[in-house]
Amino acid sequence: MSQEALVEIRDLNFTYDSRPVLTGINMTIPRGKVVAVMGISGCGKTTTLRLIGGQLKPTSGEVRVGGQVVHELDASGLYALRRRMGMLFQFGALFTDMSVFDNIAYQMREHTDLPEAMIRDLVLMKLHAVGLRGAHNLMPTELSGGMARRVALARAIALDPMLIMYDEPFAGLDPISLSIVGELIRKLTDALGASSIVVTHDVQESLKIVDYVYFVSAGKIVAEGTAEEMKHSTVPYVHQFIWGEADGPVPFQYPARPYGEELMEGASRRG
Amino acid sequence: MDNGILRALRGLGEKFTGRIWRLGYASRFFLAILLHSGTSLRRIHLTIREIYFTGVLSLIIILVSGLFVGMVLGLQGYDTLQRYGSTEALGVLVSLSLVRELGPVVAALLFASRAGSAITAEIGMMKATEQLSAMEMMAVDPIARVVAPRFWGGVISMPLLAALFSAMGIFGGYLVGVQLIGVDEGSFWSQMQASVDFRQDILNGVIKSFVFGIIVSWVAVFEGYDAEPTAEGVSGATTRTVVTSSLAILAADFVLTAFMFTGT
């Protein structure tokens, strides 16, 4: 990927309670592209997003967003950077005490001096983009999972961010909602000229919309390339992941003592 | 055996240092609330909303409890005072018990159970559902936007609720003492008026309830913010709020009483 980079991650290491979570991560997210970070649960994908957003500090290495080293920014610098980022959380993370309208207007009211009439128009435009203009009066508890995800997407793009991060945007969605959210991620990225990072383990939907993929396993990047390259990858982990094989480099069995040995021990106890 | 004793000692030491560490963390959190309180004052509607949720919605339990506590004080007080032939001092007994002690303490204990637990559960659930993380990623500080208004809402509500508790209690004492038993109404009110000192009794009671308000609100917001983001974690945090703040209220009450009323 040779385009101008919006996010650059160099030699990133992150350790939690002396347990290495990420080791030697190098990634480049170009402007205007959708990049997926894939891997099984617990491999360090969400931690990568949190390091990009400055919610965690790296043990070593650096994350640059728009040329700024994230962990070197002070609180006001970090908040200024975050105003240019949007994030979609796994289950939406909508504010449950506010209506759909107020959820999307939230950042506009917090960070701008726009008159309420203009905020109203902007909110309705964002909701129209995700197909939910008619739902602006509903409360989050009245939304289906797919609708909540779309509202959260509208909220993530409320201030027209340069970078949008998606944490498991397809988790728990029905096929129709899944396809809608996938299309929206692609369309909104293109329309805003933003960059998108999609952390997911949904292979089918994400490979349809992304420009580039990083595969992470046990905190390390094990493969990278375009969606087509990944589909034909011979890397065993990638092959197992994409074709959903039950056994392979990621074993079916949780590590344990030999089966026979454990059964024999039970037999000898019985007598 | 030696190993067992060593393990037990190590466990005890770890628990002790853990508690000290947590107290330090809670103190830093308290300072952070004070430093980020500007938003609560600038955007006063955030704090007024919390006064409604913690104060106004606690009114029923506070008023009804105050009434019954006052009625019980009327019955018990009359029973004791008649042995000494001084039943006309019933108003003094009821009012001093309430404004000095029972009003601030019982109202604070009820406030911890009703509003403190609700604050902890709300903040804990916001954490569990990533609403606080979402706020951070939107460049909005959750301590300024969520924690500080709830803290100040609680601190402002507490003295008002304690005052209402005492007022209802005195009314309850009046109902039982004067209307039911037949103590002289004039003596009941005039002795109360003559004996209750504004500075010594009422103001000290207000100071107590203000301190209790700080304790309950601090414990409630801290436990919510520090809760493990799971259903079990939020439930545990809610329980800790009620237990910790109740014990802290009773301990602080002893210390404050020792300073305020000893030798008077």
How does this model look, in words?
The complex is a heterodimer of chains A (271) and B (264). Chain A is α/β, with parallel strands linked by helices and 271 residues long. Chain A has a single domain, classed as Rossmann fold (3-Layer(aba) Sandwich), CATH 3.40.50. Helix content of chain A is 38%, strand content 24%. Chain A is built from 10 helices and 10 strands. In chain A, the strands form 2 sheets. Chain A has a 6-stranded mixed sheet, sandwiched between helices. In chain A, helix 3 crosses helix 4, helix 4 crosses helix 5 and helix 5 packs parallel to helix 6. Chain A is globular and about 80 Å long. The model of chain A has no long low-confidence stretch (mean pLDDT 88). Chain B is 88% helix and 0% strand. Chain B is built from 10 helices and no strands. The mean pLDDT of chain B is 93. The interface between A and B is medium-sized, with 19 and 11 residues.
Give the total of domains of chain A. Answer: 1
Estimated structural class of chain A: alpha/beta
CATH superfamily of chain A: P-loop containing nucleotide triphosphate hydrolases
Low-confidence stretches of chain A: none
The shape of chain A is globular
Extended strand count of chain B: 0
In the residues of chain B, how many domains can be counted?
1
Largest sheet of chain B: none
Multimeric organization: heterodimer
DSSP helical segment count of chain B: 10
Taken from the alpha-carbon principal axes, the silhouette of chain B is: globular
What is the rounded distance between the termini of chain A?
A: 66 Å
Uncertain segments of chain B: none
Whole-number radius of gyration of chain B? 22 Å
**SS content category of chain B:** mainly alpha
Could you tell me the radius of gyration of chain A in angstroms? 21 Å
**Element-level helix/strand string of chain A:** EEEHEEHEHHHEHEHEEHHH
Give the integer mean of the pLDDT values of chain A: 88
